[in-house]
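Below is a filled-in request sheet from our internal design queue. Each sheet records the structural input a requester submitted and the sequence that came back. We keep these sheets so that new team members can see what a complete request looks like end to end.

REQUESTER: design group, bay 2
PRIORITY: normal
MODE: inverse folding
CHAIN LENGTH: 390
BACKBONE (tokenized):
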């Protein structure tokens, strides 16, 4: 039985095993050439949108970037080649690797030299020292399109801590009842990233119990759907949410919104959590639009005097692939009330129509019209206004 789980596929010395708790996570063994097996690896990535390559030899930031980018066939090559000329596609302002600006070192370490780069120093953000930050990279940004592919390469790993937890957005959706799926498609949420950057958010482990009093922050509030459609028939719709940046459900009161997200994340999201324990030489590539994720609290390893160092290379690959959305169905406007997510029927209906209006505005600002399956594409017309919150 162990052999069956461990060796599900092999080609050219490569071996693929599937995570026992989440079939969308795959471990790849035996990769020796980063430039070979491109087609096979891409097919595996379609089925396992989180691939973890085990035991790689040391690689440079540039080789890491060139390997990871191939997992997004729609990656923006111009932005990668000329980052200073494509500021809107610089998904993070990475500065330490001047010759490879789309790659950032993260963790806790100080190196005199790294692949010819002097004085590499990184420290963990104090805001996540004792907290989880559940998120999808760049989702809800004011003007940047969320990347499809994120890459991580583990250069140095502590003995304790430094893990990353993942939750499949498809697993969340598949775990809902049919009536809850209808209700989820009606949810349009407000998120605010700047509040986090100025440290005005206090939350617990799950990111759902906000401890601070609500206040309306003028800058940075964006609207995003809760559910996104699949990219192919082999996939499911996926729930992507940003509980740490969560403000409220559009049209709902703050109290009802916070009660809902606390219940939703605790009972519908967190049970699908899978923790990945890294080892030196691991390289992970994951579809950022199919998972939410969070690093575990950094205090676990920073406070360990015997093993406080961690160094990870991280990249968000800029993409040209538009983000899709789903149109709520008018026949299901009472769905959030019917499943008990909102105690007020009239507000539930009005909130759904707010989402329908949002959908209409997005369609009018996109190059493509509404599809027959109810999806709409969030891509700005060449002469249209910017599309925020995608």
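RETURNED SEQUENCE:
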């Amino acid at each position: 039985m162990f052999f069956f789980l461990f060796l599900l596929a092999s080609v050219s010395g490569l071996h693929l095993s599937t995570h026992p708790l989440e079939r969308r996570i795959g471990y790849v063994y035996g990769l020796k050439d980063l430039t070979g097996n491109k087609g096979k690896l891409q097919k595996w990535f379609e089925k396992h949108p989180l691939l973890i390559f085990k035991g790689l030899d040391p690689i440079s930031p540039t080789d890491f970037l060139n390997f990871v980018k191939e997992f997004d066939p729609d990656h923006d090559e111009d932005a990668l080649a000329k980052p200073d000329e494509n500021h809107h596609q610089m998904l993070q302002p990475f500065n330490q690797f001047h010759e490879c600006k789309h790659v950032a070192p993260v963790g806790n370490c100080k190196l005199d030299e790294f692949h010819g780069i002097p004085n590499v120093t990184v420290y963990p953000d104090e805001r996540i020292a004792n907290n989880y930050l559940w998120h999808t990279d760049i989702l809800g940004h004011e003007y940047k399109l969320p990347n499809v592919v994120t890459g991580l390469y583990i250069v140095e790993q502590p003995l304790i801590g430094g893990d990353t937890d993942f939750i499949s957005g498809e697993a969340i959706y598949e775990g809902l009842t049919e009536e809850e799926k209808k209700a989820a498609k009606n949810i349009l949420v407000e998120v605010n990233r700047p509040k986090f950057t100025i440290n005005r958010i206090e939350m617990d482990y799950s990111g759902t119990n906000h401890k601070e009093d609500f206040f309306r922050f003028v800058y940075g509030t964006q609207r995003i759907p809760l559910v996104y459609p699949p990219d192919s028939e082999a996939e499911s719709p996926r729930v992507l949410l940003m509980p740490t940046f969560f403000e409220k459900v559009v049209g709902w009161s703050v109290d009802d919104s916070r009660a809902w997200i606390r219940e939703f994340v605790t009972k519908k999201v967190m049970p699908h959590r899978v923790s990945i324990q890294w080892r030196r030489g691991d390289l992970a590539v994951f579809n950022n639009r199919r998972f939410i994720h969070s690093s575990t609290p950094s205090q676990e390893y920073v406070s360990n005097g015997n093993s406080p160092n961690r160094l990870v290379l991280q990249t968000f690959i800029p993409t040209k692939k538009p983000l899709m959305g789903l149109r709520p169905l008018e026949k299901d406007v009472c769905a959030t009330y019917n499943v008990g997510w909102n105690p007020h029927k009239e507000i539930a209906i009005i909130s759904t129509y707010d989402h329908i209006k949002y959908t209409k505005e997005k369609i009018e600002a996109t190059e493509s019209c509404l599809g027959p399956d109810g999806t709409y594409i969030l891509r700005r017309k060449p002469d249209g206004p910017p599309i925020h919150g995608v």
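SHEET NOTES:
- The longest helix spans residues 345-364.
- Residues 129 and 299 are 5 Å apart (CA to CA).
FILED BY: M.R.
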